[in-house]
Amino acid sequence: MLSSVLSFTVSADALLNQYNLHLPDDGPFFKPEMAATVTDYCTKHSNAISPNMQQVWDWTCATFDNADKMSSPLQGATMKFLAEWQQPKRVLEIGCFTGFSAMAWYESTVSTQAEIITMELDPKMIAASRRTFDKYQLNDRVTLLEGPAQDSIERLTGEFDIIFVDANKEGYEVYVKQILDKKLLAPKGFIMCDNVFARGMTISTEANPELPAKVRPYWIENGKALRRFNTFCKNDPRIDSILLPLYDGVTLIKWKPTMTAPIGINWDTNGSEKVMD
Fold it and tell me: Can you tell me the distance from the alpha carbon of 57 to that of 255, in angstroms, rounded to the nearest whole number?
């Protein structure tokens, strides 16, 4: 299970060469054991997730070999914190896995009775998600869209206050651009993109020497895609973005203030003003 705290280790030589950093000569600067200890401390001193969320998390870990793709309990608590603060009326989630994060959005939006739309492509994870939604009676506000996310996004209308992207990494740029082009993000909403460090491979292909060899090629390819995504977020004139060294890397995106236009003004995809008749 991936630690909530940034847990990949990085070769000092690799970072020195790529980023001109000055690190100790004795190898990795933040070992997984320390990351696990910090995560445990943070989890114990933060809001706890609900018993139902804990059950889903435990079941996922016991059932799926790739359970490390699921958000950690601390990240689940973070999602609930943000949603309770944001008070969304609609939440969009791209990538459902076993329904853990959808449950976080559900539990944290009782006061607003938010509509939650989540998407999943993998038939095995669709079945797992539906098990979660049925067992914990979430179907009154959670809708699971099956199939390619790009197709599902194209059919969406209206605005979402929170959009969570945690799906196939090569699709991040496509999904976020599609969301922005269709103006699915509410004026005061935000997008949260998970795993933008790709187990460290986004930063350096020599990162994380403890990443198992059998999954390293997969994460290296994800890192390449996410480097392109990070460049897109930095350069798109319509948005403000911040990449945080939390979990496996989290990017937060919102409209630039100039993009939340008053009535009578619209904006094109380059951020240029258009006065409407």
Answer: 33
Question: Cα separation of 229 and 235, whole Å?
Answer: 10
**Which residues, other chains included, contact 127 with Cβ-Cβ below 8 Å and sequence gap of 6+?**
none
pTM of the model: 0.85
Q: In what order do the strands lie in the sheet with 115-120?
A: 142-146, 115-120, 90-94, 160-165, 185-194, 250-255, 239-244
Q: What is the pLDDT of residues 8-40, one digit of tens each?
A: 544 444 444 555 555 455 554 456 677 788 888
- Closest C-alpha to 233, from 219, 216, 249: 249
- Using the 8-state DSSP alphabet, how is residue 50 labeled? P
Alpha helices (H) along the chain: 12-19, 32-44, 51-63, 73-86, 100-107, 123-135, 149-155, 172-181, 216-235
The tokens describing 167, both together, are: 């799906």
Residue 252 has a CB neighbour count (10 Å cut-off) of: 16
